[in-house]
Write a structure and sequence with these properties.
heterodimer, A: 143 residues, alpha+beta, six-stranded antiparallel beta sheet, B: 203 residues, 2 domains, eight-stranded antiparallel beta sheet, four-stranded antiparallel beta sheet, 5 helices
Chain lengths: 143, 203
């Protein structure tokens, strides 16, 4: 009996892990140059962002959705098309000592900011952008 | 299936070859669709070394423009009716006239301050503005715009009225062109370049 419970727990955990990890991971890293500066490196299952979007109260989302509604199809389409492209720097801005660039890197979109004070990098799987934009669009449609 | 038999090996080899060819053709189609890249490069060495680079595949730009329905942009069409700078000028009629006209210089204005020339040459609409007022070459302003006539054609061909320009069609037409320098602006030490090629890095 105990063996069956353990087995079903194991199967459920494996299935849940598989579901959560199916979209890959969002990478966030923040490195401050100051002596006691922050060094934050997070690797989060991308599926969590999509799951979290389900639980945002409609009244909190409504205002933002109204603004985003018109660009969500474009965002979804961009994610789909970017997946077909080779790795490339799409936008790069350098202003004095600040350097910001957005690039398609592997299966994701990367945004990096580099300055004498800090280096910030966020990498999001394109599939997550596609799924989140689709989900928000369907929520915008139902409101 | 016994893989040791000759026919089985042939079937397996054929299947592998078919899959490889199919995969190859799929990748080729994807590569062609993202073949042409539009690049924008702004350099200003005076202002703390400001620099902006944008590299975007034309096919993606055309798809994005077609999918947006916001403000004056409606699924690839731009409404220019509310543009105050046009001052009653029928831009669509003007572009229509340019595309059907033979090669030649349409506008040539030369005065103490500026030299402006608009012409059509070898399938291109060329606009050249030269600020001749500046004595110092360092502050000189120069603008050169070179647009393929097929792009002008696409811009007006399927537009919905005199206030409408089909930007998505123009981008698709642009995608069929070879390496082209579209816009070149020099204002003092600041430079702006917009061009089209098959490279994805913009260098």
């Amino acid at each position: 009996m105990l063996g069956k419970i353990a087995l079903s727990f194991l199967v459920t955990t494996a299935a849940l892990s598989g579901y959560i990890m199916q979209d890959g991971f969002v990478h966030v890293s923040v490195d401050e140059a100051a002596k006691n500066g922050t060094h934050l490196h997070l690797v989060l299952p991308a599926q969590l962002a999509t799951i979290a979007a389900h639980f945002v109260p409609p009244d909190r989302l409504e205002g933002h959705l109204r603004e985003l509604r018109e660009v969500l199809p474009a965002l979804q389409l961009s994610a789909q098309q970017l997946a077909k492209l080779p790795d490339s720097v799409l936008v790069e801005v350098r202003d004095g000592q600040e350097h910001v660039w957005v690039s398609k890197s592997g299966d994701g979109l990367s945004v990096e900011k580099e300055s004498p004070q800090e280096h910030i990098k966020v990498w999001v799987p394109l599939r997550t952008i596609y799924d989140a934009a689709g989900l928000l669009e369907s929520r915008a449609g139902s409101n | 299936m016994n893989l040791r038999s000759t026919s089985a090996r042939l079937v397996l080899g054929g299947a592998i070859l078919a899959v490889a060819l199919l995969a190859g053709s799929t990748f080729k189609t994807q590569a062609q669709s993202s073949d042409r890249w539009l690049h924008v490069r702004v350099d200003n060495p005076d202002d703390k070394g400001e620099m902006v680079r944008v590299n975007v595949p034309i096919a993606l730009a055309a798809l994005l423009v077609s999918s947006v329905d916001h403000d004056q942009l409606h699924h690839g069409h731009v409404n220019i009716g509310h543009h105050a700078d046009l001052n009653g000028l029928d831009l669509r009629a003007m572009l229509d006239a340019v595309r059907s006209a033979p090669d030649g210089e349409f506008v040539s204005v030369k005065n103490r301050d500026q030299d402006v020339r608009v012409s059509k040459q070898n399938g291109y609409l060329i606009v050249h503005v030269n600020d001749s007022n500046r004595k110092d070459n360092k502050d000189k302003q120069e603008v050169q715009v070179r647009v393929p006539i097929s792009v002008v054609d696409a811009l007006v061909a399927s537009s919905k009225g005199s206030d409408d320009l089909d930007v998505a069609a123009a981008l698709r037409a642009l995608a069929s062109h070879g390496d082209t320098e579209l816009v070149s602006i020099k204002d003092g030490r600041e430079t702006v370049h917009i061009w089209l090629d098959s490279k994805n890095d913009g260098d």
